[in-house]
Design goal:
36 helices; about 5% strand; single chain; elongated
Length: about 1150
């Protein structure tokens, strides 16, 4: 008896093969949205074990049921070539396509034909091209401005400099460089003057080691290990002071110390360490031996220090802020300074990286005698040889660096503990809590030490170690690809293909796009390549597997054409949107981020090219050699199972013919493993096995998505798809909450942290070194200058991609005339105002802008003029007469022929005055310099506040300036990584995020419109992307309390690239489906759900490996990457798909020409419409 439509629906019957199913009046669907007469989906298929008679009856009943409700309103044809067996079922409405894949037409068809006929040639071309480009990258030398010492291989991280992150074309950078260049030129003028007027030997630049180095020192902080129990206990005891001395001796007793110490200008000997706590208790000649002290000796010095805690800045440096006058301090610190510039350098900025390398000799181990013959032009080698020789260290001996001495003292070890890769996987500083224990029962003393060279050494060690985890992530992703594809062969070659996209992308980046700067941040591209590359491989692999069950495809050529076409289209959509996110990121003025964005975009383009051309070749070779036991015979036995097991137990005729022509197969199999039974199998292959239901050929995960997951969104209550609505509401609620948190992101309120809390160089150490002390060293405050006569800097020769080279030249104000009396009075008036001006900004510590050392050179010249002419108080002038100005300047610096005094004045004022050095003598520029009360480091908010206030004050002063003084500007004179230049970088990071969003979202929407060919799908996808971005950035704020730092601003735009992939894949497959919204949703989930989850898990695996890294930058990126993938999968499956199920386009609604259609139209137009 025939079944009613309701019974058919419950039993999941399918219409007979080739029968038209005509739907007329709407029929009330069941709870899962299934109409009795609509084209079947997977959950309606007949079970595999159902008797054929029952299947035939079911098909007949379905046909009758269809006819009983037919009208011409809508017709859906379910086509399938009959193979004479009722067991051959059709899976989905995708079979309604009229495309004949076996004909392999068009561009993708031509590619498929080439691979089908010449798969070894195709792979050989890929291999040859890759080897040539990789060989060039590895052999050709890097650009001289990238690595001055050269070396083999272009793909090397360029030498780092202080200007790498600086925005060279911004005002703050221009001003800072203008002052620096003016000082260098002014120094040349002073040298000419000294040579002519004083008879001095000409010297280039500053006196060696005449100033404290801002980049090389040693800071140590001491406190009671049990702080709570000893909060009122004096830190100064004989045992503790002796331990402090021994710790500081690790630097002061170093054999090379005399070559790096800060020199006394008069004696030429090492200057006493002003901020050494040990130097307060020991004379200079005992600072390296550290003999025991008596209680009385320690108490006398301790009381002397305590007496000046409130009044003497030099003594208050050693006391905590809660130490009282005449009381005690429970912690103290030392700041051991080295001198700058080193011998042979004009100033601290001259060949900056070279000087840093030499300072590093103090802190890292140095083996004397371990140098090349003559050292050639290697300045570091020459310096090492000189220091070893002058220090009396014999060849072959190793001089222990400061770091090694401290490691030995506190038994700090990394993993591995020694060797070339010492500390590569775990740094000695991880978990380090050095302390001094005493045998007399005295409370233990905690010790922490830090310096820029130590941090640089640690940074290099940690980065190299973290790169090992990048290699590990390659292995992890490779194993997952093996698991997903079921083939070690595919996984191995796919990983080779993905990894090779990096050097090939670099070849394009370096040699085609001519970007010679390669930053360490570019290394992040490997994680992008792994995640997106593996996702693309999954798309190709899944298309290949699905083509096997497509009833319209009967040949391997058809399978290749189908795979390539789907891969080209699907991966083009995702690649284009991801690349555009990096194009948006490249709009940043920050050079390392710009270079990373361009490099990442090129790597992804290369990866796309590889997955379209190489992956199908890999799949073809795998099919020939590994698809069944006949193919496996030349690699292992016929009983092989597991991952290498055959997917098709017997070879078909076409495959047997391909193998018969395959030279490698014939050579390896027939000659070496010839056997009668095998030859017979090869000569008489089985034509075909019994046709199976397309359902049975789906993977377990695909059946899950089709039979179970898709039902979540079609489940109905009272005719409404409750599951879809609930899913959408939950996603919207979470997006709203997280987006509100994302809007609260602000620039960092504290200094960027590069190491985790468990690392010794953490935020706690930074706070202990710099916060809550009664006084600070001068270096803890910003140096500032108000500059006259400088009109800027000419940047015309500068290439921002070489931040440390050709930075330009100073431009002077031609109207500047300091000889003018009005100019002199204005100059002195500015000095007076600066000395008195209050500062209420949060960054000002003392309530005034000027802390100390204000140099007003014009006032000093006027005082000299008055004294020179013996003018009384009533006769003294407020400005030097114009006619006498040049002579006064000459007399002041000539010092009556006293060379020592003249040189002293030149050294003191050369940073404040620029002299031409020729006759007639002229002053080209002048500056008021001072050490401000602005403490370093500052938050972006504090920096912006104080900068805007000082800038407004400067503009007000300039408005009242006389002619020739109106180019007045203010600047800090700190290094590039501090002050206003770093404030600009932080502002740029924020602007980069805003610009990235402004570019990415419209571009992503436009790309999605033409990629999917439907406006509605593009709107849903773009909304999903927006919610994912809001969710990721919101999580950074809500869950971790992060600010908008470097990692967050980079990740913010990258998130768009990653988040678009999964929605585009599903949207593309939804559009390819036919039937109702439920059918198309089920079709998309069935054919792309597994790929989406697989691609997400692969990227997730790569991201999880980043958690093993030490640098917080990488662990932050790991968290952001993990959140991106998790939310991308969630919103693709639980927001985008329900939206399609409820409101998705049907028929031609919202359709526009897709990119492939536009390409075909263009090609037809070129061919004259043929």
């Amino acid at each position: 008896p025939r079944s009613s439509p309701e019974t058919m629906e419950q039993q999941g019957f399918y219409p007979p093969v080739g029968a038209p199913v005509v739907v007329t009046t709407p029929v009330q669907p069941n709870n899962f949205g299934v109409y009795p007469t609509q084209p079947l989906a997977q959950d309606m298929l007949v079970g595999e074990n159902q008797p054929l008679q029952q299947k035939a009856e079911a098909q007949s009943a379905a046909a009758d049921g269809a006819k009983s409700q037919s009208t011409p309103e809508a017709v859906v044809m379910v086509k399938k070539e009959s193979q004479g067996n009722d067991a051959a079922e059709v899976l989905s409405t995708d079979s309604a396509e009229s495309h004949s894949w076996d004909e392999a037409t068009g561009i993708t068809g031509s590619i498929a034909r080439f691979i089908n006929n010449r798969y070894y040639t195709a792979f050989g071309i890929f291999l040859l091209a890759v080897l040539v480009m990789v060989g060039m990258v590895q052999v050709l030398p890097p650009h001289e401005k990238c690595l001055e010492d050269g070396g083999a291989g272009q793909m090397q991280v360029c030498e780092q400099s202080e200007h790498d992150w600086e925005l060279s074309f911004r005002t703050a950078s221009r001003r800072k460089d203008a002052v620096g260049f003016a000082r260098i030129e002014g120094m040349d003028g002073f040298q000419d003057f000294a040579e002519r007027e004083l008879g001095s030997e000409r010297k280039d630049g500053e006196e060696p080691r005449s100033s404290p180095s801002d980049f090389s020192d040693l800071r140590v902080v001491y406190w009671h290990k049990d702080e709570e129990a000893n909060s009122q206990t004096n830190i100064f005891t004989p045992k503790k002071v002796q331990a402090m001395c021994e710790i500081e001796a690790s630097l002061l007793a170093h054999p090379f110390y005399p070559h790096f110490c800060l020199l006394d200008a008069e004696s030429g000997n090492c200057r006493p360490q002003t901020y050494s706590v040990a130097a307060r208790f020991y004379p200079d000649d005992q600072l390296t031996s550290c003999p025991p002290l008596t209680d009385a000796e320690v108490k006398a010095v301790s009381d002397e220090l305590a007496a000046g805690f409130a009044s003497d800045p030099a003594r208050s440096f050693f006391a905590k802020i809660d130490a009282v006058q005449g009381g005690v301090t429970n912690s103290t610190r030392s700041y051991l300074q080295l001198g700058a510039p080193l011998e042979g350098y004009s100033d601290a900025d001259d060949r900056f990286s070279e000087q840093l390398d030499k300072y590093q000799l103090m802190f890292a181990d140095t083996k004397c005698g371990d140098w090349k013959d003559g050292c050639d032009d290697d300045s570091l080698c020459k310096a090492t040889k000189e220091y070893c020789t002058k220090s009396g260290v014999a060849d072959g001996e190793t001089v222990e660096g400061v770091e090694t001495r401290l490691f030995t003292r506190y038994e700090l070890e990394g993993f591995p503990a020694s060797g070339q890769y010492e500390g590569a996987f775990s740094s000695p500083y991880m978990g380090a809590k050095p302390s001094e224990e005493f045998d007399n029962g005295e409370a233990a003393m905690a010790v922490r030490f830090w310096s820029i060279p130590l941090q640089q050494e640690e940074f290099t060690r940690v980065v190299n170690g973290d790169l090992n985890f990048a290699i590990f992530s390659v292995v992890v992703v490779g194993f997952y690809i093996w698991f997903h594809t079921g083939s070690a062969f595919i996984a191995t070659l796919a990983m080779f293909q993905i990894v090779m996209s990096l050097p090939v992308g670099f070849f394009l980046y370096y040699n085609i796009f001519q970007i010679k700067y390669y930053a360490s941040v570019n290394i992040l591209a490997i994680y992008l390549a792994l995640g997106i590359g593996a996702d693309s491989v999954f798309v190709a692999s899944d298309c290949w597997n699905q083509s096997r069950s497509n009833p319209q495809i009967k040949t391997i050529l058809g399978r290749l054409a189908y795979t390539i076409n789907r891969t080209v289209t699907s991966c083009f959509n995702t690649t284009l949107t991801t690349v555009m996110s990096f194009v948006a990121t490249s709009a940043t003025p920050v050079v390392p981020i710009y270079c990373f964005a361009v490099f990442a975009a090129l790597v992804l383009c290369v990866n796309y090219l590889f997955v379209c051309l190489v992956t199908p070749t890999i799949l073809m070779i795998h099919h020939v050699h590994f698809s069944d036991l006949g193919g496996l015979c030349c690699w292992c036995s016929k009983t092989t199972t597991g991952r290498f097991g055959a997917k098709e137990p017997k070879a078909k005729q076409e495959l047997a013919e391909i193998r018969d022509k395959d030279p490698l197969y014939k050579m390896c199999c027939y000659s070496k493993f010839a056997a009668p039974n095998m030859e017979q199998d090869a000569e008489q292959p089985i034509e075909s096995e019994e046709p199976q239901s397309e359902v049975s050929q789906l993977s377990v995960s695909e059946r899950f998505f089709h039979n179970h997951f898709s039902r979540l969104f079609s489940y109905r209550v009272a005719g409404h798809k409750v599951g879809a609505y609930v899913s959408i509401v939950c996603c919207l609620a979470y997006a709203a909450g997280m987006s509100s948190q994302a809007f609260r992101l602000t620039p960092p309120t504290s200094e960027e942290e590069w190491f985790p809390p468990s690392h010794m160089f953490n935020s706690d150490l930074n706070a202990r070194l710099f916060d809550d002390w009664k006084g600070s060293s001068d270096n803890a405050y910003m140096n500032m200058a108000f500059v006259f006569g400088v009109d800027g800097v000419d940047r015309s020769p500068h290439n921002r991609l070489f931040p440390n080279h050709d930075r330009g030249s100073v431009v002077y104000d031609p109207a500047f005339n300091l000889a003018s009396e009005a100019s002199q009075r204005f100059f002195v008036d500015v000095c007076t105002q600066l000395e008195a001006v209050p500062c209420d900004a949060a960054a000002c510590e003392d309530g005034k802008l000027v802390r100390a050392n204000l140099k007003c050179v014009v006032r000093d010249l006027i005082d000299f003029y008055n004294a020179q002419h013996n003018l009384t108080a009533t006769d003294q002038v407020s400005a030097i007469p114009s006619a006498s100005f040049a002579g006064t300047v000459r007399d002041f610096f000539a010092a009556g022929g006293d060379e020592a005094l003249g040189q002293q004045r030149i050294a003191s004022y050369s940073s404040n005055l620029g002299m031409n050095g020729e006759e007639p003598l002229a002053i080209e520029w002048a500056a008021i310099t001072f050490r401000s009360s602005v403490s370093l480091p500052m938050t972006n908010k504090d920096s912006r506040e104080i900068f805007d206030w000082v800038e407004d004050m400067t503009e007000t002063l300039a408005e009242s300036a006389p002619e020739g003084m109106k180019t007045l500007f203010q600047t800090d004179t700190q290094s590039s990584g501090e002050g206003w230049t770093w404030m600009d970088v932080e502002d740029a990071l924020i602007q980069n995020l805003i610009t990235g969003f402004t570019i990415c979202f419209p571009v992503a929407f436009i790309v999605l419109v033409f990629a999917t060919g439907n406006v509605v799908i593009a709107v849903f996808a773009t909304a999903s992307i927006a919610f994912i971005v809001g969710g990721v950035l919101g999580a950074a704020k809500a869950y971790y309390g992060w600010d908008l730092g470097i990692a967050e601003s980079i990740a913010g735009v990258i998130v768009i690239g990653f988040s678009v992939d999964y929605t585009v894949h599903l949207g593309h497959m939804y559009k390819e489906g036919s039937g109702s919204r439920e059918d198309k949703t089920r079709h998309a989930l069935t054919y792309m759900g597994t790929t989406v989850v697989g691609g997400g898990l692969t990227t997730l695996c790569a991201g999880l490996v980043l958690f093993l890294c030490t640098l917080t930058f990488f662990t932050k990126m790991a968290l952001l990457l993990v959140w991106t993938i998790i939310l991308s999968i969630i919103y693709a499956l639980f927001f985008f798909m329900p939206m399609c199920c409820l409101f998705g386009p049907e028929g031609t609604f919202g359709e526009v020409p897709s990119i492939p259609q536009l390409v075909n139209m263009a090609l037809k137009s070129c061919k004259g419409g043929k």
